[in-house]
Design brief:
636 residues; alpha/beta; Rossmann fold; 3 domains; six-stranded mixed sheet; 21 helices
Length: 636
């Protein structure tokens, strides 16, 4: 074997699949004696080779049925190869099948000793490490319950705790850890990192490609039992991801082509693969309706689209923090994906001064050196009283009448004028109906009970919504409608409402945002996810440092570089992406004309921020889409 602790040399594994159904043992014995049993040979592994040195970490990737678990079982000695040879050096701790080595009728306490015995540990050894195992698994109060009553996550915690109670020479981990919660997976990753640092060799199987890239130096890509590629994990994982994306696109295109040939129309053509369209399509599909989702962009997700840039989830169209007090909506999104515990606490920079947002006691203490809420209230009242504003005529007077001159001048005026491209004196007062003032030392920007960002970004959340739904990106609605007039019964339109009606009453006004995104060779650029620049002389409104949106990920896998984005708010022009409506009186009146036209469109549902010309938080978008689904279900 030389320097290798694992040497897999041209290994093949063969299974015999029965060609006929045999209902009982007697029938099986008779057919076997008469040589009437027919089998089909299936090679689960074909000429697979893998050489692993001590202390290396290898991730095994591939689709279901590719042979990943079979290879681990061969290396562990559970299966014998049909051809080829496997050699290993040292003690192996395999964590391959959930509950392997456990007896469902025995208690958690009894199974700890049983599993330890299976792994070759003495009872004395297990007694000495018993408390450590229980603490890591966090199952103290369930120790005397039969393990058959344990959840899959509890079994995974117990199995991992026993398997890693000492550093084995070789640790083999299959995707059983995917069933654990976030904190458990974090602790498992920490322990595996410690074991790798101590010289343990790791073989790791996961469908989470990012986990493989983070944990493993190398990767082996198996495809239908054969080695497709082996090498540095970053390179192999990216090649695998690209291939799967291509196959997914081809599969959907083939399905669409079959449907086109059938000439069977869709129930709904959903225009826009953002949050509104994705939720609507997902829920109507559950109700047995056929949906086609199209988007003029080359990706799904709309403005919440996130993309992996050098291992950092980048919010391509600006910061999006999910927050809600709607428990049903929170349960809806957390069933789709796991959320981290990110708390939005932006800061603002005015000239060389830094202030906490939202306006709270930390802000006021920095402004005036005051420490008690009563003092701050009195200072604000004095400033408001001195202005003598009774009926605010514009945004400036409205803001001054709410917070006084100091807060307005330093933290509102310049930022707002950059956002809207107009002086505050030219903006209507109703844009700022209220400004929240907190008289506590609380930097949490939102008051909502639930808050966070999807682990792995928003794109994978939208992918789950659109799973098994036909999606066509890079597709213009107006061109598609003209070319395929009979391919859908009803339209869900989330684009610009004025564009739908060919701007017959004129253009509604929108604001758009331009981003300058760059990689910076610093571990930490600004120390916070979002920093607002409130001075009008600074051309951008804020700077986002994307890695800070996933603090747990950065703690587990720190990077010596970062990705930042500067945001520039500009006036919308045809041909560029609109971001948010200009909700002043003029545009409100114009929108009402378009809304009246929309109500006459019997086979069109207008939704989302552009289709309804209003700003939506993400939870409100989901709630609106669910309401539209319920309304459609009642009507149809």
């Amino acid at each position: 074997m030389g320097d290798y602790v694992i040497d897999v040399d041209k290994v093949s594994v063969r299974f015999n699949l029965a060609n006929q159904k045999v209902d009982n043992l007697k029938e099986y014995a008779i057919k076997l004696a008469k040589h009437e049993l027919m089998f089909q040979e299936f090679l689960a592994l074909q000429d697979v080779s893998l050489k692993v040195k001590k202390g290396e970490s290898w991730g095994l990737i591939g689709t279901n049925g590719a042979g990943k678990s079979t290879l681990l079982k061969v290396i562990s000695g559970i299966l014998q190869p049909y051809r080829g040879e496997v050699k290993t050096k040292g003690r192996i701790s395999p964590l391959i099948e959930l509950g392997a080595g456990f007896d469902g009728e025995l208690t958690g306490r009894e199974n700890i000793f049983l599993n330890g015995l299976v792994l070759g540990h003495s009872r004395e050894f297990m007694e000495a490490h018993f408390d450590e195992i229980v603490e890591f698994a966090n199952l103290k109060k369930f120790l005397d319950s039969p393990i058959k009553n344990f959840s899959s996550g509890m079994k995974a915690r117990l199995g991992f705790a026993v398997a890693t109670v000492v550093n084995p020479d070789i640790l083999i981990v299959d995707e059983v850890l995917e069933v654990g919660d976030y904190n458990f997976r974090r602790r498992c990753n920490e322990r595996m990192q410690q074991m790798l640092a101590g010289g343990t060799t790791l073989l790791f199987v996961s469908h989470n490609i990012q986990n493989v890239k983070n944990l493993c130096q190398n990767a082996l890509w198996l495809d239908k039992g054969r080695v497709r590629m082996a090498g540095p994990s970053e390179v192999v994982c990216e090649a695998y991801r690209t291939e799967q994306d291509r196959l997914r696109r081809e599969k959907k295109e083939k399905k669409r082509e079959e449907l086109r040939k059938e000439g069977k129309p869709y129930d709904y053509l959903v225009v826009g693969a953002g949050l509104y369209g994705a939720v609507f399509a997902c829920e109507m599909t559950k109700r047995g309706k056929r949906c086609l989702v199209i988007d003029k962009r080359d990706h799904i997700g709309g403005n919440i689209y996130t993309e992996d840039v050098d291992g950092i989830q980048v919010h391509k169209y600006g910061a999006h923090i999910f927050h809600t007090s709607d428990k049903e909506v929170w349960q809806y999104v957390t069933k789709l994906t796991e959320f981290n515990n990110y708390i939005n606490s932006p800061v603002a920079i005015y000239k060389d001064e830094l202030y906490n947002l939202p306006f709270n006691m930390n802000t006021f203490s920095k402004l005036w050196g005051l420490k008690r809420p009563q003092e701050v209230r009195e200072r604000i009242r004095e400033q408001i009283a001195d202005l003598n504003i009774t009926e605010p005529k514009n945004l400036e007077e409205q803001a001054l009448s709410l917070v006084g001159r100091d807060v307005y001048e330093k933290l509102i005026k310049g930022y707002t004028e950059k956002q809207w491209g107009r002086d505050c004196t030219e903006l209507p007062s109703f844009i700022i109906k209220r400004l929240p003032l907190r008289f506590t030392y609380d930097n949490n920007y939102f008051n909502d009970r639930y808050q966070g960002i999807p682990v792995g970004g928003y794109t994978q959340m939208v992918e789950k919504l659109l799973d098994n739904i036909d999606v066509m990106t890079g597709t213009d609605f107006f061109a598609y409608r003209k070319e395929h007039p009979g391919m859908f019964h009803k339209v869900v339109y989330t684009g610009m409402i004025d564009e739908y009606f060919d701007f017959c009453y004129g253009h509604l006004e929108y604001r758009t945002v331009r981003f300058e995104t760059e990689r910076v060779e610093e571990e930490n650029y600004q120390g916070n996810a979002v920093i607002n620049y409130t001075e009008r002389a600074v051309p951008y409104t804020r700077v986002i440092e994307h890695k800070h949106f996933a603090p747990e990920e950065e703690r587990e896998h720190p990077k010596d570089y970062t990705i930042i984005s500067r945001e520039y708010s500009t006036e919308w022009k045809p041909g560029i992406e609109p971001y948010y409506p200009v909700n002043d009186e003029k545009n409100g009146a114009l929108y009402e004309k378009y809304r009246e036209l929309a109500e006459k469109e019997e086979d069109v549902i207008f939704g989302g921020r552009l289709g309804q010309y209003k700003y939506y938080d993400m939870d409100k978008v989901i709630r609106a889409a669910l309401a539209a689904v319920e309304e459609e279900s009642r009507v149809r």
